[in-house]
Design goal:
The chain is mostly helical. The chain has twelve helices and no strands. Helix 7 packs antiparallel against helix 8.
């Protein structure tokens, strides 16, 4: 694993060769500001709607449809090139001839993708101290740690999924579409399935609620760090990375 730091630097620098990474980061900065402005507006108009110390986090991120739609676009855009572009351009052949293992290649690309994911979330963290110190809205900071951990494992899972689809094809657009479709399934269809199950009084309602990303992140925002959710995220992440490594090994052997 000694080559991973060098490979991660290579991947991070590659993100900024074109304008896409800058545009995505700028878009998330704008979304963070809009969400923060909406939170301030709610507090000014009717402070009682956010009377709990936990509510700001759930209005700010967990229940922001704009944030989740943007995330479903950003993750595929950031991961689609990681292996697909290497295969399309033929640089993957050169990379695999140097003394690095397939695991090092895959893990380094995944780490770079996770680092970019953190960069997307950074603007949302920047504004909250202003609400606490300048706005004198002294919410409980404890749930921030729970939300941070939960969003971290969730991002690790999403990036691993995107990396897997990037390894399946040479076409970046195809990789992005499959990643988007999978995230849509996990985020919106699971929530829709839960609402449908509740409406029908189905016994599957509890299962669909457990699988709902909205419910998971909402729970994190309440300061409830359910280890079962983290286990699911990390298990899927590890499985996707394992499959990706096997795909790269198969390509190298072929």
């Amino acid at each position: 694993m000694k080559h991973i730091p060098t490979l991660v630097k290579r991947e991070l620098s590659a993100y900024f060769f074109g304008p896409m990474a800058f545009l995505i980061l700028l878009a998330f900065q704008a979304i963070a500001w809009m969400n923060f402005y909406d939170l301030l507006d709610r507090l000014v108009r009717n402070p009682s709607t956010l009377s709990g110390v936990l509510d700001p986090l759930n209005f700010y991120i967990s229940r922001s449809i704009t944030f989740w739609i943007a995330l479903m676009v950003a993750i595929p855009a950031l991961t689609m090139r990681l292996l697909a572009e290497e295969k399309r351009s033929g640089t993957i052949e050169t990379l695999l001839t140097v003394p690095v293992t397939e695991t090092e290649v895959v893990v380094s690309k995944w780490i770079a993708g996770v680092a970019m994911y953190f960069a997307l979330l950074l603007p949302f963290a920047v504004y909250l101290p202003f609400l606490y110190y300048q706005g004198n809205y002294h919410y409980d900071v404890g749930p921030l740690y729970s939300l941070t951990i939960g969003m971290t494992t969730l991002g690790m899972m999403f990036v691993a999924i995107g990396l897997f689809f990037s390894a399946l094809t040479k076409n970046q657009i195809v990789a992005a579409i499959w990643t988007f479709a999978t995230m849509f399934l996990l985020i919106f269809l699971a929530e829709a399935g839960y609402n449908f199950a509740v409406a029908k009084g189905s016994a599957w309602a509890d299962v669909m609620q457990f699988l709902s990303i909205f419910y998971q992140v909402y729970t994190f925002g309440l300061g409830q760090l359910d280890l079962r959710f983290l286990a699911v995220h990390l298990s899927i992440c590890a499985f996707m990375l394992f499959l990706t490594i096997k795909l790269v090994q198969w390509r190298r052997a072929g």
